[in-house]
Amino acid sequence: MCRTSNGLMSATPDNRLGELNRLDRRGFMVFCAQIAAILGLAPSFIPKIAEAIEGGARRPSVIWLHFAECTGDSEAFIRSTYPSIEDLVLNILSIDYHETIMTTSGHAAEAALAQAMKDNKGKYIVVCEGAIPTGTPPGPAGKPGDFLTIGGKTGIDLAREVCADAGAVVCVGTCSSFGGVQAQRPNPTGAKGVEDAIGVPTLKIPGCPHNVVNSVATIVNFLLLGSLPKTDRLGRPLFAYGKRIHDNCPRRAHFDAGQFVEKFGDKASQDKWCLYKVGCKGPQTYHNCAWVEYNDNTSWPIKGGHGCIGCSEPQFWDNMQPFYERLPNVTLPGVETTADRLGFGLVGAATAGVAAHAAYTFINRKKFDDTLKEEGE
Ligand code: SF4
Question: Who contacts 301 (Cβ-Cβ below 8 Å, separation ≥6)?
């Protein structure tokens, strides 16, 4: 292992496999199985995923740019378990510039950025974290974009310069994807998502923060197929944003049965009934939280008893408010009414759907778990 000119540690080609082998092999194969399941690939792809990560393919050069943000997405990224952050940084990717984790600063850091762009022109991946302020600060000297300057350049100029020669631009988190909380009304800095700010198409992995499993699956897709995954009309990968939270929610059976938490702390909330009436935005939010959860499949907001706030949707901070009031007119599937109008007489009809949905959720979850077990044992 050696220290590179940009201050990041780097594995030599010879010790790369050695480093990966430090991972528990079973854990590594379970991780590969999990990624295959998340990407919707057959179990036969699991060895190929392992090979793509361990194999001799050149590590893609990554330039990670910070704009207006809280660094929550870097925090999420460095807490990856499979692969570990050490493997991501040392063996799988070549993270050539990342202001938070590189040890160099100032002119040396700027030189490292310029070098990485030159050496990997047209091929490097830019990962963007944070919104880009495009407004003009008050005062005679203010110019557009001056609310954020890094190394003497505005965020807009830096993004334009670095993204111009990139092979792909990936936005992690809702701020770089859609503007996030920085772009909330009245948005005094004119903050925008990267695509809106500079007009370059981006792949977006929103969430506050994004789920590192989804960024890792995107990397694997790139290593395996040499391309970024298919996206929805907003530029979000379909494997992670193709379905609503509501579609796979473990509390969905209670929604279908008209069983709702009316107040936090009530008996219904202890019994884990549906959070729709206390503001859950799951019916309008596309994200795979219910499948992959956060922090190594430990938990996620709804499992913890709090409704979804829709953080992976554009302008969620404006559009999903008030967070603790119900969405209007959410129609029950197969029942011609809304949850608000669900009468006692319809509970029986809705209950018929409970078993179906519970079975559907169980079968899907079991398929996912079986894939993991199959590889892990
Ligand atoms: S409204 Fe929210 S808590 Fe209720 S089923 Fe849908 S996603 Fe789950």
Answer: 289, 307, 308, 309
